[in-house]
Amino acid sequence: MDAAKYIWMNGKFIPWEEATTHVLSHTIHYGNGVIEGTKAYKTKKGYAIFRLKEHTKRLLESAKMTLIDVPYTAEELNEAQIELVRKNEFIGDNVYIRPFAFLGYGVMGVYHKNAPVETVLAAWEWGAYLGEEGLKRGIRLKISSFSRPANTSNMGKAKATANYLNSQLAKHEAIECGYDEGLLLDDQGYVAEATGAAFFMIRDGKVITPPSDNALESITQRTVIELAEDMGIEVLRRRITREELYIADEAFLTGTAAEVTPVREIDGRMIGKGERGPITEKIQSTYFDMVFGRNPKYEHYLTYV
Ligand SMILES: *Cc1c(COP(=O)(O)O)cnc(C)c1O
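# pyridoxal-5'-phosphate complex -> structure
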């Protein structure tokens, strides 16, 4: 990865190399931590962080769900992220921001409430998550043999590091099988989400995406629903079954990192013409116009640095 100059850790900016932790930190052993993935884009007026407030709010909500007491307010974390992007003097097109909170060194054992909470904001320049080629031509998706953990035993709506074991195994399986990304069904067999992105498909001109019953409440998914509706496209939120995926006219994934990535194949079935579909392309270009500050209608989602 591309190192940056500073990381904000527990209220202070410190050099990137010095942002280290003890090997007996609680989270390394028991997996309770929460993360965000936020992005800043270089606009004509400098960097703008996309939907900063929503991401910070979700970080604190994830922490509440997993019983981590983050000792900073949303306002403090927002200010620090703005300062972080400024201080690092980035030059690239976009910057990925990774706010997180984890349990540090001092106690062992499953009970975690006495472990110190460490709060960190890091940022670095990061290229297209599923590749530049993927953004243009589309990616190949495989339905995973892993399902998204059931709501009875998991906190799927927390952006929790613990949930990433499931994502990691599904991702690895997809790559091993020669695909780009895995798609997870829920324990009832309905489409949940990809390993770190929401799923959309298009049938007969309608955009369809599943409810968040068994998935993270994705900020990009919400944004894309709004964009599509503003473009006059009908959007349905309903359950999707496996066989329906195979006959979709178009499909794409959305996420802060994945942005809007077209899907050209699912499980050996070509989707549409096997390339980025026309509606996907329109939504994708509208998304990029929005995040790069080229559409005044969505200025309220940008926080200039
Ligand atoms: C972060 C993440 C997403 C994407 O969420 P956005 O808010 O759109 O960035 C989707 N699914 C999972 C499991 C995630 O961790």
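# post-check
The two ends are 23 Å apart (CA to CA).
The mean pLDDT is 97.
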